[in-house]
Amino acid sequence: MGMADPNRQGKTRLAKYYVPLEDSEKHKVEYEVHRLVVNRDPKFTNFVEFRTHKIIYRRYAGLFFSLCVDITDNELAYLECIHLFVEILDHFFSNVCELDLVFNFHKVYLILDEFILAGELQETSKKAIIERMGELEKQDELENILLLQASHIFAMPRAEKAVFSASRFKGSLLGKKIQ
């Protein structure tokens, strides 16, 4: 069904649904999951039956990482999936905290999408996921550099643009020598 990460106060910091639900139903599910896991005795297992599914959760500091899966799915595999997700977040953000999830939510979703596809666990190698995220970071940095250069060019006065354009292509233009 999906993944939700509420904090102790019940504010959802990350939610990803793999089945279509109305917004009101999503809020209802998040509230019910929060109510189930927050008030649960730590001595109990990390698996709770929920409607026709199963909630698998794990607490890290003030956040509860929870997955809602089919009743027949392997609980331990998904419990390890949660731990893998937190380990990768910790590596990527250097000691991850709740604010990292709030202010870098787009990166968190990218990480999640690297190993969970359509609600199913696809990649279990921490090394492979971190390498792919590193490649995405390099591409992102390159795009930022290109955007910065483009904004600098467009901010130049017209005369400087002409000189800049001529100096960049000095020597050849589409394979032909310029005289």
TrEMBL record:
Q: Which domain of life is it from?
A: Eukaryota
Q: Say yes or no: keyword Lyase present.
A: no
Q: How does it sit in the membrane?
A: Peripheral membrane protein
Q: Which UniProt keyword terms apply here?
A: Cell membrane, Coated pit, Endocytosis, Membrane, Protein transport, Transport
What single Pfam family name could you report for this chain, choosing any that match? Answer: Clat_adaptor_s
Q: Which GO biological process categories is it annotated with?
A: clathrin-dependent endocytosis; protein transport
GO CC annotations on file = AP-2 adaptor complex
Which residues belong to any copy of the AP complex mu/sigma subunit domain?
7-138
Q: Gene3D superfamilies, per this entry?
A: 3.30.450.60
Keyword match Hydrolase: no
Q: What is its main location?
A: membrane
InterPro entries the record matches = AP_complex_ssu (IPR016635), AP_mu_sigma_su (IPR022775), APS2 (IPR027156), Longin-like_dom_sf (IPR011012)
Q: Which Gene Ontology molecular function entries are recorded, alphabetically? A: clathrin adaptor activity
Family, according to the entry, reads as follows: Belongs to the adaptor complexes small subunit family.
| PANTHER family according to UniProt | ADAPTOR COMPLEXES SMALL SUBUNIT FAMILY
- Its recorded name reads AP-2 complex subunit sigma
